[in-house]
Specification:
Blueprint lengths: L2 E7 L6 H13 L4 E6 L13 H12 L5 E3 L2 H4 L7 H11 L4 E7 H8 L6 H7 L1 E5 L6 H6 L2 H4 L7 E4 L9 H9 L10 H10 L4
Parallel strand pairs: 1-2, 1-4, 2-3, 4-5, 5-6
Helix pairs in contact: 2-10
Length: 204
Amino acid sequence: MGKIGIYGSSFDPVTNVHLWTASTVAHRCKLDKVIFLPCSSKRRDKQLHIDDSHRWKMLELAIENNPKFTADEYEMKEEAWNIYTYNTLRHFKAVFPNDDVYFIMGADLLVDIGKGKWAKGEELIAENKFIVMARDGIDMLKAISHSPILRNNDDGSTFHLLDKGLAMEISSTYIREELAMGGEPRYLLPDACYRYIKENKLYK
């Protein structure tokens, strides 16, 4: 039985922090594979800034030299009405029936689920396992204990909390803003992705 982490994000663009986070989580949690899952541009709660084909190509470039990393277009290809994290994890558990599948997320998302902001949030927590990364200013244990959804579905193995050294905050938004204003974020993202952005004049 293996251990697989599902790492969802917009990756708009993918950054070195995304890669460092995935590598650190894989190391600490003994994951055999991390699946990078770019979100769908069809989601009403996401405003993406470039075409899906560019996000996908940069993700491929970013992870091509790490055998533990792979990318999956599942959510990109799904119809908008069916894009829920609950459905996504059900899909990957069917693909990997003999493995433990974990959803990798930040503590800010844990708080939102606990407040009932996610569709099928209670079923999501009840039926899945999560690796939760620290975010500045969020006490993850309090977030769990203060939420009936979280605390009543925690059997002791539901949440793997990573609260040491995983709160780096360099974001895709920062990189996009720098590129739009003529800044130089070169060393915040993989070299191949930086070259791809320049060659295709993205985020201007």
